[in-house]
Amino acid sequence: MKTCCCCCSLRTGSVFSGVWGLLFASLALAAYIFFVITLEIAQGSLGTGQPDTASVLNTIYAFQNRYTVYVGLAVSFLWFISCIVLFAGICVKNRWCLVPWLVFTILATLYLIAVLVLVLVYGVVLLYTFWLFWVIVGVLFLIIVFDIYALICVGFYFRELTMEREMEENRAMRMVQYNGNHDQGGKPAYAYAAGGYPQYPQQRQNDYISQKQGHAVFSPYGTEFDDHGSYKKPPTGGYVNQGYQYRPSYHGGGYEYDYNKRY
User: Fold this and answer.
1) Is residue 185 part of a domain?
2) What are the TM regions of this chain, as residue ranges (predicted)?
3) Out of 103, 119, 169, 235, which could bridge 123 as a Cys pair, Cβ 3.0 to 4.6 Å?
């Protein structure tokens, strides 16, 4: 998976996934805050003779007890924070900032799947309305589908950032290894072109650029890149390219061609 919805990058898709998660985390947080406030008010009114105390408590405890209300509040708050961390990770391209959002979204998706199963099993009996049953089933199913697609998008973006990091580490290692075998002058034989995307071996090979003005450089991979964009194998006796006479010389780790203007 290289794009989200076949029209935008994985980074943009991850931003939309974060907005989607932030929306539901906010709704869940608001609902649990309401439950906690209602529960505290109801418990504080016990013994006062108010007629709505028993009905409020029975309504809340019919679905969840006091401890699960506070646990749900804590989980919703952490899910909300994970969405903020996700946005920060996308901005700085830190793949580990994506992990909390992935964990909490997986838990939320599993919870919704369990709710969907319960609705399918007991929904008709509890709701007493056939059309309302299918509306709830349809909404839950769409939310689960969107959650799964958001997880896939962010997961592939995590993989993309991981590959990009590995490529950067490999490039740095190769630069150190090659420069260690270069001449005593400490001149780098080649450098990688900067880029914000993963580079595969053939692409990296095509992205070598010379840091030496007036020299054509051969990488240890055997591909020659000169200042005029010519890519050739090193001939033994030199060659002429765009009016420049190139003569080979070897410096411990690769060939360099000093050139003179010929015509």
Assistant:
1) no
2) 19-39, 67-89, 101-125, 131-158
3) 119
Instruction: Compute the distance between CA of residue 107 and CA of residue 75 in angstroms, rounded to an integer.
Output: 10
The DSSP line for the chain is --EETTTEEHHHHHHHHHHHHHHHHHHHHHHHHHHHHHHHHHHHTTTTT-TTHHHHHHHHHTT--HHHHHHHHHHHHHHHHHHHHHHHHHHHT-GGGGHHHHHHHHHHHHHHHHHHHHHHHHHHHHH--HHHHHHHHHHHHHHHHHHHHHHHHHHHHHHHHHHHHHHHHHHHHHHHHHHHTS-TT---S-EEPP-SS---HHHHHHTEE--STTEEEE-TTS-EE-TTS------TT-EEETTEEEEEEE-SSSEEEEEEE--
Residues 6+ apart with CB under 8 A from 151: 17, 102, 105, 106, 109
Question: Are residues 131 and 236 part of one domain?
Answer: no
Co-location of 148 and 222 in the same domain: no
**Residue pLDDT, tens place only, 86-107:** 999 999 888 889 999 999 999 8
Phi, psi of 47, deg, nearest 5: 85, 0
User: Are 48 and 151 found together in one domain?
Assistant: yes
pLDDT per position as a tens digit, 96-146: 899 999 999 998 889 888 888 888 887 666 666 677 778 888 888 998 999
The pLDDT score that the predictor gives to residue 86 is 92
**Predicted pLDDT of residue 257:** 45
Yes or no: say if 180 and 220 are a contact pair by the CB < 8 Å rule: no
- Its domain, for residue 244, covers 199-261
